[in-house]
Write a structure and sequence with these properties.
Elements lengths: L8 E3 L12 H9 L4 E8 L5 E3 L20 H6 L18 H11 L2 E6 L6 H15 L8 E4 L2 H10 L4 E6 L6 H7 L4 E5 L5 H9 L3 E5 L4 H10 L3 E4 L11
Parallel strand pairs: 1-2, 1-9, 2-4, 4-5, 5-6, 6-7, 7-8, 8-9
Antiparallel strand pairs: 2-3
Helix pairs in contact: 1-3, 4-5
Bound molecules: SN-glycerol-3-phosphate and magnesium ion (MG).
Length: about 250
């Protein structure tokens, strides 16, 4: 079986609460803290390119307006994705996946790419992101892991890049979680930490799946989850939440 690629602590949306979400500045912030990895959201632009953004619309995290899947790369590159967070981040751009991959590899950050399809684009987003990730990380020591709430996107990713590991994102553990993971060849479940009990962690880990928990900002809760057997926590506070042995 392929080696588990993710560090025990991943900064959520690149830099968690320390930088504007889904930006290269976030990667720098995570790396500066010695955080071993990052999670970020990937959606297709109007040009069909994988770009880092959480919302389908531009308003919350940029100075643009409108929908990401209707906006060209040229237009996205003009937008400011940092000033909303703080004046010192003015000029940050929406990163393309290719520059993000190069930066993660250079900084030694393991990467969890969350495939975030805009409505109606699950299959194409899964396929394009998986193909891109497979080639962008081809020469890296540690490959990325792809996750998604969308079973359709994960199935498409499995077909396009079977060599990349996958995780199924859920909130509460749904009935049939093991079958759902099997159906997309997922090696991991990524679950909302608010709903994780000790028994649930034991059951998931006992099934042979890896378990990532999001979004854990309390170091005491993170320690508890690691103690129960959680493999990875995704956090907005990579300055506070540390890996078990550090
Ligand atoms: O991948 C875990 C987490 O990022 C899922 O929620 O909405 O922050 O993308 P969201
Ligand atoms: Mg996410």
């Amino acid at each position: 079986m392929a080696r588990w690629p993710l560090a025990p602590v991943l900064a959520h949306r690149c830099g968690g609460a320390l930088a504007p979400e889904n930006t290269l500045a976030g990667l720098a912030a995570a790396a500066a803290l010695g955080c071993g990895g990052v999670e970020f959201d990937v959606m297709l632009s109007g040009s069909g390119s994988p770009v880092l953004i959480h919302d389908e619309t531009l308003e919350r995290t940029t100075d643009g307006r409108g929908c990401v899947p209707e906006t060209s790369d040229d237009r996205l590159r003009q937008l400011d994705a940092g000033r909303w967070f703080g004046e010192q981040f003015a000029g940050e751009r929406i990163p393309m996946l290719d520059e993000t991959a190069r930066r993660c590899i250079a900084l030694g950050l393991s990467a969890n790419l969350e495939i975030k399809p805009s409505p109606g684009t699950d299959e194409v987003t899964g396929r394009v992101v998986a193909n891109a990730a497979w080639s962008l990380w081809a020469s890296a020591d540690v490959p990325p892991l792809l996750s998604s709430f969308s079973v359709e996107a994960l199935s498409a990713a499995a077909k396009a890049a079977p060599g990349l590991q996958r995780g199924l994102l859920v909130e509460q553990l749904p009935a049939g979680w093991l079958e759902r993971c099997s159906s997309v060849g997922a090696v991991a479940l990524h679950a909302d930490a608010r709903y994780l009990s000790h028994d649930a962690v034991l059951e998931v880990r006992g099934s042979g799946l890896r378990l990532a928990a999001y979004t854990v900002n309390d170091p005491v809760r993170a320690r508890e989850l690691f103690g129960w057997g959680v493999d990875c926590v995704i956090t907005d506070r990579p300055d506070l939440v540390r890996a078990p042995d550090s």
